[in-house]
Write a structure and sequence with these properties.
The protein is mainly beta. The chain is built from 1 helix and 5 strands.
Length: about 80
Amino acid sequence: MKEGLNVCYDENGDFLEIRIGKPTVGYLRDVGDDVFERIDEKTGEIRGFAIFNFKKRTEKLKPVEVSLPFKLKISA
């Protein structure tokens, strides 16, 4: 099954969230330094991640270019 990648950014809250596949019931687990893993409550799988203070972190970075299509594998 192919899964989509959902990227959401809240500019007012300076919060970036990237989810894999369709939304599921889950929770965010703090991994430190304002970074969180999105965990599927039913399966325990990592289904994405979130970063608080995202813009603040990227002010000195250059744009990132990604060739499409691409595969993303997140493992713990």
